[in-house]
Amino acid sequence: MAAASLMSCTAVEQEKKFTITGKASDFADGKKVYLIKSVESKEIPVMDSTIVKNHSFVLEGQVGEPYIAVVGVADSLTASEVEIIELFVEPGEIRIGEWKNAHYLTATGTPLNDASMQFSQAMDSLFRSNPSVRPEVLYPFIYPYIKKNVGNLLGIFLFERYEASMFNEMRLELASDLYTAHKEEKYADLIAEIEKKMERESQMAELAKTVQPGNPYKNISGKTADGKELSLKSVIEKDGNRYVLLEFWATWCGPCMNEVPYLKEAYTKFRGKGFEIYSMSIDKEEDKDKWMQTVKEKGMQWTNVLRTDAKNTTEVYGVQGIPANFLIDCSTGQIVATNLRGNALTKKLEELSGREL
Fold first, then answer.
1. Of 127, 152, 165, 266, which sees the most CB atoms within 10 A?
2. Alpha carbon of residue 154 to chain centroid
3. What is the DSSP letter of 42?
4. Rounded to an integer, what distance in angstroms lies between the CA atom of residue 260 and that of residue 295?
């Protein structure tokens, strides 16, 4: 019985053993190799280390529950240049092959690592066929990989890597699945957070319906560079103004900055014909100097104000992302067009100029 018990324990220990083998010309002899557990800690949790010999190395040990780790190859832990690969430490023989020239950097040889490699290859193929993959294509592509692995560490890893930018319905479904599979409090908290965000977005969408073309504009106000309150209404009712573009933007918003040349083109062409821009930045008050500098450097010579209260400005218009704009007919107070991007603004004003502008 004792012998049988010993054999049984040995078999269990063998099942929990892992080895990580790396072999490639990229690995320079004498370099140090570290196995570092991926945990949030001020200290670096080194699980094992070794030295590269004959362009190869072996790390080994015992593992109960699989965990995510990084294998780093460097002269030392404090070296400025460290070559790393992220992998799953689980029972079995984990292999690392090509390093620097690999299109996708991941390990193979065990279930989680093989599944991770399949995902990396699929992502590589997707981006090779279309380097500018849009979110509406990317996240439905990622979704089934997470769904299939929701009960294991790969599903957790992929979800936590990509969930922040996912569509809320997808995030909620996967977070619920993960909570059911793992009963982790963080997923319960995330579910509550997503549900709250979805409710808010639904409210904003309802508000956005009230400022579609054909609806009256809503008055808002912001502060000018000299700190004075200036309302949208005062600009719309100013003598000589026939159309006003309400533009929401920010200095940190790349797409907003890309729109500036188009705004300048339209403003230069139509400012003498009754066209004005009421440009509201959503930069924070502490970034006022940066806002003023950007306005000056970019030659934004139209009316510029800084948002003071989201609830009484962007939220009134149901704005959930910038840039966003609304073209308003001063004679009727009605919104005639929204989200005029690129040349669309000039084209719309040209269309109106044939009739009224």
1. 266
2. 20
3. S
4. 10
DSSP one-letter code for 333: T
How many residues does the structure list for the chain? 357
Q: Domain span at residue 160? A: 134-209
| CA-wise closest residue to 157 among 87, 99, 223 | 87
Q: pLDDT tens across 63-116, in order?
A: 988 999 999 888 877 777 777 889 999 999 999 876 665 555 679 999 999 999
Query: Comparing C-alpha atoms, which of 235, 241, 240, 242 is closest to residue 279?
Result: 235
**Do the strands 67-74 and 32-37 form a parallel or antiparallel pair, or are they unpaired?**
antiparallel
* Residue 87 within any structural domain of the chain: yes
CB neighbours of residue 234 within 10 Å: 13
The model's pTM is: 0.61
Is residue 21 located within the same domain as residue 81? yes
318 and 225 both lie in a single domain:
yes
Same domain for 152 and 68: no
Q: What is the pLDDT of residues 196-253, one digit of tens each?
A: 888 888 888 898 899 999 999 999 999 999 999 999 999 999 999 999 999 999 999 9
**φ, ψ dihedrals at 86, nearest 5°:** -95, 140
Q: Would you call 26 helix, strand, or coil by DSSP?
A: coil
> Are residues 284 and 232 part of one domain?
yes
